[in-house]
Design a protein that fits this description.
The chain is an alpha+beta fold. 41% of the residues lie in helices and 27% in strands. Strand 2 and strand 3 form a beta hairpin.
Length: 235
């Protein structure tokens, strides 16, 4: 039997009997070096399908209800308690430092939506030299020029998406200077990118208000909040 691991808490933060894991299995704590790993015993590694990932996340959410844990990625397994304790002991200073970093904090996210076609037209209005030529390239030189324009336009769209994310970022970090941020610029249809913030639990209501204010100041963006989550983006 292997151990499927969900998250790591400080010692003493053990799961309650009501917490069920992968395929309804019992979730228990394995302690070592002042740490407590939440695990389930399985006959074989769980397949990463939607239902199993949701079951994994449900346990991490249960852990988050009492204190912020270090979430482990789906598929983290150990060959028994001895192997798990050895890892906890070997990495104890690093894991305790990470728990201290996230103590009292949670991850919240903002997906920054946009109209990619409208953004493209705004870019081309300022850079008409990047507008693709009509028809097939008449020569090798024309083909290379067309490719150069495509790459330059992609870079300009990425810059525009990043600028939109920065407007939200400035609003959040300006009001919550102790927050941490992880950014992913993903310029594609419907989405400019995402921002994840590590904030104090006590600041959640204020965070939502700040993002709402940022949305009002950026009418070309659609801001979609998610969370609170365990701090996946910061561990």
């Amino acid at each position: 039997m292997i151990l499927h691991a969900y998250c790591i808490h400080a010692q003493g933060e053990a799961p309650g009997a009501e917490v069920r894991g992968i395929a309804g299995t019992e979730v228990r704590g394995v302690e070592a070096a002042g740490l407590c790993a939440w695990v389930s015993g399985l006959d074989a590694p769980a397949a990463p399908d939607v239902d199993r990932v949701r079951e994994h996340d449900r346990v991490v959410r249960a852990a988050l209800a009492t204190a912020t844990p270090l979430p482990l990625r789906f598929g983290t397994v150990f060959d028994g308690e001895a192997a798990l304790r050895a890892v906890l002991e070997a990495r104890a200073p690093e894991l305790r430092a990470s728990l201290e970093r996230v103590r009292g904090r949670v991850e919240v996210g903002v997906a920054v939506g946009w109209d990619a076609d409208a953004a493209r037209e705004r870019v081309l209005a300022g850079r008409p030299d990047l507008r693709p030529a009509e028809g097939r390239p008449a020569s090798g030189t024309a083909y290379l020029e067309a490719r150069r324009r495509e790459h330059a336009l992609e870079a300009a769209l990425c810059e525009a998406a990043d600028s939109l994310l920065s407007r939200v970022s400035v609003a959040v970090l300006g009001a919550l200077p102790d927050a941490e941020e992880a950014r992913a610029t993903l310029p594609r249809p419907g989405l400019a990118g995402t921002l994840a913030h590590l904030v104090q639990r006590a600041d959640l209501t204020r965070y939502r208000q700040i993002v709402q204010g940022a949305a009002e100041g950026a009418p070309e963006a659609e801001l979609r909040l998610s969370g609170p989550w365990a701090p996946y983006s910061f561990v």
